[in-house]
Amino acid sequence: MSKTINLNRAVQLLTGIGIVILSSCSSKQKNETAVNADSAIRVSVAVPSAGQAQSINVSGQVEASQSATISTRVMGYITKLDVKIGDHVNKGQLLGTIGNDDIRAKRAQADAQIAQAETAYKNAQKDYDRFTVLYQQQSASAKEMDNIAMQLSAAKAGLESARQMRNEATAMLSYTSLTAPFDGIVTQKTLDAGSMANPGMPILTIERKGSYQVSASVPESAVGQVKQGGTALISISAINKTIKGTIAQVNQSSAYTGGQYIIKVTIPDDEKTGLYAGMYTNVGIPVKQNAQTTAGSDQVMVPLASIEHKDELTGLYTIGNNNTAMLRWVRLGKVYGDKVEVLSGLAADEQFIVSADGKLFNGEPVKIK
Length: 369
Prior knowledge:
This protein is an alpha+beta fold. Helix content is 30%, strand content 34%. It has helices at 2-39, 101-136, 142-174, 291-294, and strands spanning 41-46, 49-50, 55-64, 67-70, 76-81, 88-89, 94-98, 177-179, 184-189, 196-197, 204-207, 212-218, 231-236, 241-250, 261-266, 280-286, 300-303, 308-310, 313-319, 325-329, 331-336, 339-344, 352-356, 366-368. The strands form six sheets. The protein has a six-stranded antiparallel beta barrel with strand order 3-12-15-14-13-16. A hairpin with a 2-residue loop joins β21 (331-336) and β22 (339-344). α2 (101-136) packs antiparallel against α3. The longest helix has 38 residues, at 2-39.
C-alpha cells in the first residue's frame, strides 16, 4: 500500500515537471516568433513589367567638361617642367619654362632702340619749337618749317616703332612660360625637361577637376528624336551606378564624325563622386512610346536599382518561404533607360523586392509593406 502511494506521488511530480517544461518552451517559442516579426525588414515588392518604354540606347564616354592642351608658340628647349600626371594645379600657376635667351636679347635691343628713338624725338621736338618761334618772327621760311615738322613726325614714328618692337619681344617672352588656364588636374604629359618644344606641339593636357559630362554618338536614324534639354539615363558599369543627366548639346552636323551625331549629357554635381574621365557608359534616352512596337512583347523588365552585383554575378531578391529574402541569380540583357531585361532566372509573374528599409541578406526575415 505504501509503495503504491509513493509511486502515485512520483507520477504526479513528473507530470508537473513536464507541464512546467512544456509551458516554458511554448512561451519561449512565442517570444522568439514575436521578436522575429518585430525585427523583420520592411520591403516593397513588384512583378516584372512586360515590354519596355521605347528608348534610344547608345554608347558614350565620360569626359571632362573643360580641358586644355598646353603648348607654345616659340621653338626652344624646355628648361623646366616639374609637374607630372595627376598633379593638381591652380589657375595661373607656372608649369614650365622654355629657353628664352634669344628673345631676351631681342628685347634688350628694342630697349636700346627706344632710348635712341626717344633722344632723336626730343631733339626734333626742340628744333620744331625753335623754328616755330623763328617762323612767327618771319626769320624762317615756310619750306624750312615744313622740313622741321617732317623730321619731328619721323622721330615720333621711329619711337613708336621701337616701342612696338619691345611689345613684340615681351609677348614672345611670355610664350616661353607655361601657365595653367584654370584649376584642374594634369592628365597628359608628352615632353620632359630638355626636350625641344615646337610651335603648336602639345606639351601638357589639363582637365578641370570634378567637372564631367558624357559624350555619346547617336545614329542618323535616331537623332531626330533627341531633343536638347531632354533627360538621359547614364549607366556606368565600372562603378555600378545609374545617373539621370540632361542633354545639353546636340551636334547638328556629322560631317567629321562618320555619320554619327555627337551629343553631350551633363552630370549633376552630386553624382560626380567616383567618376573618372574615360569611363565607358550606356546612355538611354527615353522617347515617346509606340503602342504598335510594345504590344504583345514578352520581355521581362525590372528596375536597375533592384539588381545586386557580386563579382561577375548579378541577381535580385525574391520572397522565399516563411517570408524571408532569397537572393536569386539572374542573367541580364539590354538596358533600357532605368530598366534592364531579365533573360533567365525570374518568371514574368514572380514577385521580387524593389526596395528595403535595411540591408538585405539571404534568409533575412522580411515584411511586405
